[in-house]
Amino acid sequence: MKSGLIAFNKLMSMLLNAALITAVGLLVLDVIWGVFTRYALGAQASWTEELARFLLIWVTLLGGAAAFATKGHLGVDYFVEKLHPETRRIVAIFSHLVVLFFALAIFVYGGWCTVSDTLAMEQSTPALQWQMGHVYLAIPIAGFFMVLFTLQNLLETISPSDPKNESVSGVAELKEGAK
């Protein structure tokens, strides 16, 4: 199961990174077009600022999810490093469970409720006339990715098989102490 999840997450991470690259590229082109229309044509295209705002929302949320894939989020681990290796492992498992709970509750469930309610109210954007629910879809999608990557991190912490991952979860120190 663990190897299947790792392979699936690798594919999802590649898709997520491709989506992020595309979104950032579109964001750059949109901002350039907005600047060009403002200064070269005398009036900024009405939709460029709105599109840039929405693309930035998507890039931010999906980028945060991508950080979960690479374990790139900041952490204050000074005090955790002072703990016994087994305690460090327990703290890591607890941390993964807390992140999993919040990703499911806030991002997936709460995000989906926000999308559903907004679509039901038929709110649309002023310039592009898009449904706001589609803009808000970034929340549950980012939550889905966070859940996937957190599950993998949790499984790797519970039962590491790769020596590179063992040092992350504190298991390498456990094995060193047992020798």
Helix content: over 70%
Distance between the termini: 30 Å
Which shape, going by the Cα principal axes? elongated
Radius of gyration: 21 Å
Give the tally of structural domains.
1
The largest pleated sheet is described as: none
The percentage of residues in β strands lies in under 5%
Mean pLDDT: 89
User: What is the count of β-strands?
Assistant: 0
Helix/strand/pairing category: mainly alpha
The succession of helices and strands, N to C, reads HHHHHHHH
Report on the architecture of this protein.
The protein is mostly helical and 179 residues long. Helix content is 80%, strand content 0%.
Keywords:
disordered C terminus, 8 helices, elongated, about 180 residues, mainly alpha
Brief digest:
This protein is 80% helix and 0% strand. By secondary structure, it is an all-alpha fold.
Task: Please outline the helices and strands.
Elements: H1 2-39, H2 48-70, H3 78-81, H4 85-121, H5 132-136, H6 138-158, H7 163-169, H8 171-178
Helix pairs in contact: 1-2, 1-6, 2-6, 4-6
